[in-house]
Write a structure and sequence with these properties.
Blueprint (H helix, E strand, L loop, with lengths): L11 H11 L4 H8 L3 H9 L6 H10 L4 H10 L17 H13 L5 E4 L5 E4 L4 H4 L4 H4 L5 H6 L11 H19 L2 H11 L22 E3 L6 E8 L7 H4 L2 E7 L2 H8 L4
Antiparallel strand pairs: 1-2, 1-5, 3-4, 4-5
């Protein structure tokens, strides 16, 4: 996978052109989408015209760039970045922390985690212990990575009954994030995980069981096999990079037997 979207010393025109090409848009496509002339866009990309800050942000919006990448465009154009990146434990982030904690706690007794852009665990509820039991201590040390925990042979992988299918699902999600962000750190994570031993990562990716609605995580547990489906929640209209990159993944029982086990019901 290419990591060549951020060579050192690039101009704003270089970055815009590379992102436009990454999004598979011609100059005509982007100029129509952005409601500017192709000539003006060409001048910006070649450095013959210096875009205003509003134009940089407008083009970044049309290219659907994440906030982190919008800041990079602004810096390359000679402007100050406008999107802050606060630590989650900073005072202004208290409402965000409370919201994350409320969602995680409210989801118990079912597992739920919060992760950052790189799938590092930010928080989790008490029910995730059910999934991480037996995982090597080294994988759980901060910054613990949720994907590495799931797919590493010292992690959850040996207990995942449909490892090939689940692995294909996770790698597919990660690949789409690489395509969206072109982030070298995500590229490196993808390459690392794809090289891990395990079932064929392409197995079951596009050939679902007839009638299936979602891809379940089938997890071997002493009380019986768990079948889990997940949903992902993100913050709407974020203006902070940390908030924009947070995601909460909540797991739900896919059948009655799994629900009974997770609720601790006997019989």
């Amino acid at each position: 996978m290419s990591t060549a979207l951020r060579p050192s010393g690039v101009t704003v025109g270089d970055l815009l052109r590379k992102w436009r090409q990454h999004r598979r848009l011609s100059q005509l496509d982007l100029s129509i989408q952005a409601d500017i002339s192709t000539r003006h866009l060409s001048f910006v990309e070649t450095g013959r015209s210096v875009p205003s800050r509003d134009m940089v942000l407008h083009l970044a919006e049309q290219l659907d760039l994440p906030l982190r990448e919008r800041n990079q465009l602004l810096i390359a154009a000679g402007y100050a970045p406008i999107y802050p990146e606060r630590a989650l434990d900073a005072a202004p982030m208290s409402a965000v922390r409370d919201a994350v904690r409320q969602v995680l706690s409210g989801h118990e007794p079912f597992p739920a985690i919060a992760v950052d852009r790189y799938w590092n665990l930010v928080d989790g509820n008490s029910a995730i212990a059910l999934l991480t039991e037996g995982v090597a201590t080294a994988l759980l040390e901060p910054p613990a990575n949720a994907l590495r925990i799931a797919l590493h042979p010292d992690g959850m992988a040996p207990r995942i009954a449909n490892l090939g299918e689940w692995r294909a699902h996770l790698l597919g999600r990660l690949r789409r994030e690489v395509e969206h962000t072109a982030d070298p750190q995500l590229v490196a994570l993808y390459d690392e995980l794809a090289a891990l031993p395990g079932d064929d990562p392409s197995a079951g990716s596009e050939h679902r069981v007839a009638g299936a609605v979602v891809t379940p995580l089938r997890f071997r547990h002493p009380a019986g096999e768990l079948s889990l489906i997940s949903t992902v929640t993100t913050f709407g209209t974020p203006l902070d990079i940390t908030v924009a990159e947070l995601a909460i993944e909540a797991f739900f029982p896919a059948d009655a037997a799994t629900a009974k086990i997770l609720r601790g019901e006997s019989g």
